[in-house]
Amino acid sequence: MSEHATKMPVNEEALAGEVNQEASRLLDTLLRYKNIILGGAAALIAVAAVYAGVTLWNAHSVSTASEELGQILLTTEGDARVDALAAFVEDAPDAVRNGALFELADVQMRQERYQEAVGTWERLEASLQSPELSILAKLGKGRSLLLDGHAAQAQEIAALMQSEAPEAFLIPVNRLLAAAAEEAGDTQTALEAYQALLSGGQVADASYLQYKVQELQAK
């Protein structure tokens, strides 16, 4: 079309009519589906209210459980603490349970209830998300097995950990491996673990480690 072509005049009445028709259709749609729209909004509000209530209840439950755990630790000891903690962890909220399990494993070991401690460490190992805390649980399990007379099993755990543990954990892993291997009669593995501890700069008990190396080398 030529630039000089005459432009068609805007029919304001027709345009107004189209706008009114479109607005009318929109209004009809809103009225027709008002129950669905309002129902959806009500559902969202209800869900938000339930979520807020659950969140507040969870926070209250965690706070109450934390107080109960603190009371157990303040008022019990020995076998009484073992029994109280064992009962507590069964119904404790997730946010509190792992801390209570660590306390339970610790007191079980101090009470020389090593077999029970192994089970507690296994529960922790299965539930912990942190790799570092999981390593602590494995160390605890290995130590409990060693003290319970299962040196070969403790050695297996330590040997697996030695290949996967971060450098910061190699010292306790090598200590467990050395003690377990020596107890299990694996002189060579024990010797290598003691040597690894020495080469890692364990000056605090270097004399003891040197003694162990010399003792094992003489066998």
Automatic annotation (TrEMBL):
Record lineage: Bacteria, Pseudomonadati, Thermodesulfobacteriota, Desulfovibrionia, Desulfovibrionales
Taxonomic source organism: Paucidesulfovibrio gracilis DSM 16080
InterPro entries: TPR-like_helical_dom_sf
Keywords: Membrane, Transmembrane, Transmembrane helix
Name recorded for this polypeptide: Negative regulator of RcsB-dependent stress response
Ranges that cross the membrane: 35-57
